[in-house]
């Protein structure tokens, strides 16, 4: 089915100047960028976005990392977009990520792991709405 998913290029990958390389992977796999913005998240925005992880031991480090520099946030649309994006990203820990995935190629650690992608269609809708008003999402 045609789906939408939320993708974030994290501060480490923005600093490495690989936004375009990552966008190329989305496009070559048939995903369309239908909304996009560069921003530096506030602490409150990062804490709210990752609220499901609030009780996890890595929560504070995750928030500190996500606010450490600008991020690129996009909505991707395509057939099976949620799983397709997760396949492109590879495993959360780059040590476990399959060769040729974004995290295998660009990530340094489980914290600085280059990209975020929604883990389900339900969460994708919540995450897209967290960052983009409907008028800034361009279905095409
Ligand atoms: P992300 O997909 O953005 O969702 C939560 C993030 O927490 C995850 O990617 C990792 O960068 C980070 N993280 C740090 N430690 C862990 C861990 N042990 N398990 C899962 N995520 C972790």
From TrEMBL:
Gene3D superfamilies xrefs:
Nucleoside diphosphate kinase-like domain
SMART domains linked: NDK
| Name of the top EC class for this enzyme | transferase
- Give one GO molecular function term: nucleoside diphosphate kinase activity
Entry cofactors: Mg(2+)
Please name the catalytic residues of this protein: 116 (pros-phosphohistidine intermediate)
Compartments, as annotated in UniProt: Cytoplasm
User: What keywords would UniProt list here?
Assistant: ATP-binding, Cytoplasm, Kinase, Magnesium, Metal-binding, Nucleotide metabolism, Nucleotide-binding, Phosphoprotein, Transferase
PANTHER family linked:
NUCLEOSIDE DIPHOSPHATE KINASE, NUCLEOSIDE DIPHOSPHATE KINASE DDB_G0292928-RELATED
**What's the protein called, per UniProt?**
Nucleoside diphosphate kinase
The encoding gene: ndk
């Amino acid at each position: 089915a045609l789906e939408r998913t939320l993708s974030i290029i994290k501060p480490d990958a923005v600093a490495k100047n690989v936004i375009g390389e990552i966008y190329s992977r989305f496009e070559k796999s048939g995903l369309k960028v239908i909304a996009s913005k560069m921003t530096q998240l506030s602490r409150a925005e990062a804490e709210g976005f990752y609220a499901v992880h609030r009780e996890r031991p890595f929560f504070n480090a995750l928030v500190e990392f996500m606010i450490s520099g600008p991020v690129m946030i996009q909505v991707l649309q395509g057939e099976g977009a949620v799983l397709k994006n997760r396949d492109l990203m590879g495993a959360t820990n780059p040590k476990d990520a399959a060769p040729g995935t974004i995290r295998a190629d660009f990530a340094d650690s489980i914290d600085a792991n280059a990209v975020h992608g929604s883990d389900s269609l339900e969460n994708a809708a919540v995450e897209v709405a967290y960052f983009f008003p409907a008028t800034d999402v361009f279905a095409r």
